[in-house]
Design goal:
Blueprint: H1 2-24, E1 31-37, E2 42-48, E3 54-55, E4 67-71, E5 84-89, E6 101-111, E7 124-132, E8 135-143, E9 149-157, H2 167-191
Antiparallel strand pairs: 1-5, 1-7, 2-3, 2-6, 4-5, 6-9, 7-8
Helix pairs in contact: 1-2
Length: 196
Amino acid sequence: LQERRLSLVDRLLDDDVAQRLAREGGRVGDLTFSLVWNDESDLDLWVTMPSGEKVFYSNKKSRCGAAELDVDMNASHPKSKEPVENVYVGDAEAGVVAPAGKYKVEGNHYAYHSSEGLPEPREIAFRVQVRLHGDTTDYTGVVRAAKDTVAVCEIEYAGRAAGGGGDALERERMAAARARKAEETQRLRQTVPPTL
């Protein structure tokens, strides 16, 4: 039973990113980079393309048209305690292919915000999820001060996998994951004693 609970917790944690993306209308591409944290402060996702161009809050769409920061939260009101930022690269439906090469991902702490009067400076833990051909890899980090920038990862992208991938397929997978989570949560509510 404990193994099943731990497995469920792992799936719920993984699905948190998909839930936030779905809530905010985030898109998924050949490559998708998503930053999540649990604070009203403004963290920013920076993705440097193989060309050296950085996609971030002041350059939301790459010059080549392949990458876009489509979700940028907590820069202005309303603030969220469960924000997400998202950069997708490539769009199979539109015939846009993500450029092959090295991508550099960073998390930047732009500014502190708190409706609860939380202290400054404070550490803010974050997670970046990288989706590549439907597979996900999570990276974690912590920003410790305003204007702090943390190197998250560098990945080498070889190109689109045969058979597509892209936005529609990934949205389908995200919807299926949400449905599985809802079913498992409902089942546990019915079978697990509330005192555990």
